[in-house]
């Protein structure tokens, strides 16, 4: 008995010593992590990117905004390549009034515009207009415009359209008289209505669907394009706000949500309004799929024609359509086909202004490239770019010289395959020239007359430099600005380390970042956490200096090694690389597991016995699928807002990558299938008001896990939508979960 008392006394003493100490350390670690939150780190870096504001379409005059620790908010005018202050701060303050005090450290001026003599901006909840001359600054307040039917006003301001009882009315702005142009509109077959977000309906007691329209006016105000929407039989979901008010009532909203695999999707029939004839006609053209919220049409007017995208269900055919309003005729201008899928995120076009030609982008060669087309005949004139690289965006078209400026990645040897560089090429495809050769990530702006380029470049270790360059030669002219990261480094932040490993095929390089704590010790073992998102529509590892606007630095500061990478199946590396995920989304994290194992061979501080994973949305799916698929590798996972079965998610995204119609592989790759494989610790989280991925996606998984008698944690967050990382509670909950189960 005496021995037992001594033992109990010893255990009590140990407990008294360890519990408070552990609590103090844990609290201190959490406070330290909060210093490395995305919100806090964003305040420690300034001037990450220079955005030029060109004055009166002049190459020689532009201004930009910046910030300095000494002077706060600054506005810089560049004239004839020479930077100088845009205005005198003291004179402006005096012009606003003798009692006005401006705290420039608080970035007080918002929505600033300058035309060479007149400055307009918002300050202290008031709008101002100031005339700036050498002799005097004169400022006065101006009334802000209010939203009304002017959103649907013609460019010449003579007419506007409105909807009543789901029918289109054309109205005169002069006498307000209206003429009803359609007569068969109804709630299930409305005209012009854009599908509203359910949150808008929940949050606005006076929400009016018939005031949310999608219309396209021609620049001459003679025509208007819209549509008739057919949504009878379309799937509807319900969101519930369980904490709607203080009277213990519950608010619900029912809304259209076309899910992947549904028999019926909303379809839009193109409508042409002829202002002079005062009539509206449904056009003879294939109906357009409406697969999400908002309007059904993605298009624009150019000269006397309207151009719009038309993708067919199954995503194996994609068309650029042209509406000839005078003839009330629609024709197919360009058709893309593929036996598997066409990625709508890479299909874009730019009309040339001086000739009947346009530039169309396509992955038909295996990489995204530019093609020149005739808009009269629809014939291909010539490819503009060719080769094993990816055109990322068109930056400008100099028709006088016959030059296209574009950003591309993957062309330069011995650099990260995702780094963008600026190039120019002749419209006939000749004389391809690299303009920004530095081995960094470049983001550029061209001057209106194509004389200059503003080039922002950086990488994970190199803060941004913003240069004025010659647009034709790429020669550097003036260093305009540099990012200031001194407060970031003073905090102890360390830049993540880029890495490259070969994929399991032994030939494809994969790129990523390793985030370490500021107190990193290479002699210690660290648990590993994979931040996963493997959506095929893009890539997700930062390439610029802005590697800190996310949750990874704070998580690393708690004592973890955090990995961010892009495996095969993501975008911007060519069709073969992207195709790895086609009908194979479940394999998204396979390359992540492989890469972590390869990195562990090089880095002794990797502890492969303690590996976790987290992600949201498609990354939430990845997290659970990875824990089922690699159930002995991942020991803990946090899945937020996951689309755990592709049939509970939106049609517009899932049917591209999984194929349509639904076949057996959809069921095989569902997180609801074989949940008995779960071995690690799992936290599921979802916002009750998630309109992107309905909360039922997670609750259906919960039901499967309960039926399989699996242990897991669940967090349903009232008032939260799709993105949970904006909640400090959720972020800290994730920290504590990994601390508990991976024990850094």
Task: Give the topology, please.
Elements: H1 2-35, H2 38-42, E1 53-54, E2 61-68, E3 72-79, E4 82-85, H3 89-96, E5 110-114, E6 118-123, E7 126-132, E8 137-142, E9 159-164, E10 167-172, E11 178-180, H4 198-203, E12 216-217, E13 223-230, E14 236-241, E15 251-256, E16 267-274, E17 279-282, E18 288-289, E19 299-302, E20 305-311, E21 317-324, E22 329-337, E23 349-351, E24 357-362, E25 369-374, E26 380-383, E27 390-398, E28 403-409, E29 420-426, E30 433-434, E31 441-446, E32 452-458, E33 465-470, E34 476-482, H5 486-490, E35 497-502, E36 509-515, E37 526-531, H6 552-557, E38 561-566, H7 575-579, H8 590-602, E39 606-616, H9 618-629, E40 636-640, H10 651-658, H11 664-668, E41 681-687, H12 696-707, E42 713-717, H13 728-742
Parallel strand pairs: 37-38, 37-39, 39-40, 40-41, 41-42
Antiparallel strand pairs: 1-2, 2-3, 3-4, 5-6, 6-7, 7-8, 9-10, 10-11, 12-13, 13-16, 14-15, 16-17, 16-18, 19-20, 20-21, 21-22, 23-24, 24-25, 25-26, 27-28, 28-29, 29-30, 31-32, 32-33, 33-34, 35-36, 36-38
Task: Quickly list its features.
about 750 residues; 8-stranded mixed sheet; 5-stranded antiparallel sheet; 13 helices; 42 strands; about 20% helix; about 35% strand
Helix content: 10-25%
Span from first to last CA? 39 Å
* Largest sheet strand order: 35-36-38-37-39-40-41-42
Task: List segments where confidence is low: pLDDT < 50 over at least 5 consecutive residues.
Answer: 1-24
Overall residue-averaged pLDDT value: 94
Strand content: 25-35%
Question: Outline of this structure?
Answer:
The chain has 13 helices and 42 strands. It has 744 residues and is of the alpha+beta class.
């Amino acid at each position: 008995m005496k021995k037992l008392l001594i033992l109990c006394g010893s255990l009590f003493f140990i407990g008294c010593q360890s519990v408070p100490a552990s609590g103090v350390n844990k609290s201190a670690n959490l406070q330290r992590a909060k210093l490395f939150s995305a919100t806090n780190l964003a305040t420690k870096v300034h001037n990450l990117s220079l955005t030029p504001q060109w004055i009166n379409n002049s190459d020689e005059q532009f201004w930009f905004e910046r910030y300095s620790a000494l002077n706060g908010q600054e506005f810089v005018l560049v004239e004839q390549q020479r930077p100088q202050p845009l205005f005198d701060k003291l004179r402006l303050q005096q012009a606003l009034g003798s009692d006005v005090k401006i705290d420039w450290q608080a970035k007080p001026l918002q929505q600033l515009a300058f035309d060479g003599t007149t400055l307009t901006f918002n300050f202290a909840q008031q709008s101002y207009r100031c005339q700036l001359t050498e002799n005097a600054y004169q400022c006065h307040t101006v009334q802000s415009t209010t939203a009304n039917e002017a959103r649907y006003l013609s460019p010449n301001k003579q007419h506007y359209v409105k909807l009543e009882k789901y029918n289109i009315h054309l109205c005169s702005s002069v006498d307000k008289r209206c003429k009803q142009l359609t007569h068969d509109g109804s709630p299930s077959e409305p005209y012009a209505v854009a599908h509203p977000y359910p949150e808008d309906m929940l949050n606005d007691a006076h929400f009016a669907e018939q005031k949310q329209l999608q219309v396209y006016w021609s620049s001459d105000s003679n025509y208007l394009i819209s549509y008739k929407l057919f949504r009878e039989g379309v799937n509807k979901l319900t969101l519930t706000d369980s904490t709607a008010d203080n009277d213990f009532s519950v608010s619900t909203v029912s809304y259209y949500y076309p899910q992947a695999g549904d028999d019926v999707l909303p379809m839009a029939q193109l409508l042409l309004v002829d202002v002079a004839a005062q009539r509206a006609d449904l056009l003879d053209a294939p109906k357009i799929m409406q697969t999400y919220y908002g309007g059904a049409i993605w298009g624009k007017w150019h000269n006397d024609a309207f151009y719009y995208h038309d993708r067919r269900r199954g995503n194996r055919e994609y068309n650029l359509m042209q509406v000839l309003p005078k003839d009330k005729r629609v024709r197919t201008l360009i058709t893309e086909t593929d036996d598997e899928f066409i990625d709508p995120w890479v299909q874009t076009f730019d009309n040339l202004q001086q000739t009947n030609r346009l530039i169309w982008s396509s992955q038909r060669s295996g990489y995204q490239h530019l093609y020149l087309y005739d808009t009269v005949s629809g014939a291909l004139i010539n490819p503009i770019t060719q080769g094993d690289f990816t055109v990322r965006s068109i930056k400008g078209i100099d028709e006088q010289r016959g030059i296209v400026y574009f950003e591309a990645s993957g062309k330069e040897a011995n650099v990260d395959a995702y780094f963008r560089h600026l190039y120019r090429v002749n419209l006939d495809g000749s004389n391809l020239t690299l303009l920004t050769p530095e081995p960094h990530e470049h983001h550029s702006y061209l001057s209106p007359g194509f004389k200059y380029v503003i080039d922002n470049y950086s990488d994970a270790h190199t803060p941004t430099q913003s240069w004025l360059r010659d647009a034709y030669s790429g020669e550097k002219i003036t260093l305009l600005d540099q990012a200031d990261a001194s407060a970031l480094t003073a905090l102890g932040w360390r830049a993540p380390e880029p890495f490259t490993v070969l994929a399991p095929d032994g030939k494809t390089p994969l790129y990523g970042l390793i985030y370490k704590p500021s107190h990193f010790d290479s002699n210690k073992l660290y648990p590993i956490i994979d931040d996963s998102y493997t959506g095929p529509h893009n890539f997700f590892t930062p390439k610029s200096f802005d590697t800190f606007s996310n949750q990874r630095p704070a998580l690393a500061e708690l004592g973890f090694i955090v990995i961010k990478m892009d495996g095969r199946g993501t975008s911007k590396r060519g069709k073969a690389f992207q195709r790895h995920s086609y009908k194979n989304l479940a394999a998204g994290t396979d390359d992540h597991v492989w890469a972590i194992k390869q990195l562990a061979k090089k880095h002794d501080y990797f502890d492969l016995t303690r590996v976790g994973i987290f992600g949201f949305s498609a990354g939430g799916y990845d997290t659970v699928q990875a824990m089922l698929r690699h159930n002995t590798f991942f020991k803990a996972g946090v899945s937020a807002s996951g689309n755990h079965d592709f049939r509970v998610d939106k049609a517009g995204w899932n049917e591209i990558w999984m194929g349509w119609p639904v076949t057996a592989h959809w069921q095989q790759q569902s997180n609801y299938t074989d949940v008995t494989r779960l071995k690690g610790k799992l936290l599921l989280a979802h916002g009750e008001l998630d309109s992107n991925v309905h909360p039922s996606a997670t609750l259906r998984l919960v039901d499967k896990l309960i039926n399989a008698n699996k242990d897991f944690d669940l967090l349903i967050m009232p008032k939260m939508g799709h993105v949970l990382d904006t909640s400090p509670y959720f972020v800290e909950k994730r920290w504590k979960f990994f601390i508990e189960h991976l024990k850094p």
